[in-house]
Amino acid sequence: MPSPLLMLSFAAVTAVGAVLGWRLAGVRARFAGVATNAPVDGLPFAAATAAAFLGVVAFVATRPPAPASAGGAIVPTVIVAVAYLYFAAISLLLGEIDAATHRLPNAIVLPAYPVLGALFASACLAGGSWSAFGRAAAGGGLLFGFFWLVRAVGRGTLGGGDVKLAGVIGMVLGFAGWPALAVGTLAAFVFGGVAAAVLLLRGKATRHTAVAFGPFLLAGAWAGLLATGAAALG
Q: Which is more confidently placed, 173 or 128?
């Protein structure tokens, strides 16, 4: 049975997610270019963010902590959890914006590089494994380069925002481990391919219809983290 302190932590993180989601609903509306009635339209996004935050903290709490070189494993685990919570928030935000506008705003994507980099480095300084930080850097570079190449060869198959988001996702998955990076990347293309096939079969799209890939990239990233969760704390 979970301890009262753990249950209180779950409740607190969920509440923070709800408040943050309420605030981010206005950001989503601004970038999506739609009018919003904050008291009404903010509720679904607040609920989604709260649920995502609860899922992240439950996921972290049930994972075996990574071996720590000093200072115990609690502090680096908490810092990595904060990184995942941040990634969860921008995942929801970017997914909705891209689905609505086929854009992944630089104002949201680019700050994720230094934010996640600083959080991962802090986790390592607090006693986590530096090999995980090296994988994050390598994963970000590899996925950015791969998607840049796909975009160059595919002549518009992917947007520039997809390439930049891929670098962020590569950092997150790389920190979790090489299996997470492989599974997350493959899952993104599988999800996108299945969705495109369904749209084609239902007559909702043609071979030339542009489909936002950002939501599938993000869904694939979380599939990679969940599928390889035993190593997800670096």
A: 173
Q: Output b/e per residue, 187-216; b: 16+ Cβ within 10 A.
A: bbeebbeebbeeeeeeeebeeeeeebbbbb
Task: Using DSSP, state whether 228 is helix, strand or coil.
Answer: coil
What does the domain layout of the chain look like in residue ranges? 105-231
Yes or no: say if 194 and 92 are a contact pair by the CB < 8 Å rule: no
Structure tokens at 213: 């890939």
Global pTM?
0.88
Cβ atoms < 10 Å from Cβ of 5:
8
For 107-118, the pLDDT digits (tens) are 999 999 999 999
**The token pair that represents 186 in the structure block:** 């493959």
d(CA 135, CA 141): 10
> According to DSSP H, which parts of the chain are helical?
4-32, 38-61, 74-101, 106-109, 112-125, 130-154, 160-176, 178-201, 214-227
Rounded to 5°, the CA angle 52-218-132 comes to 85
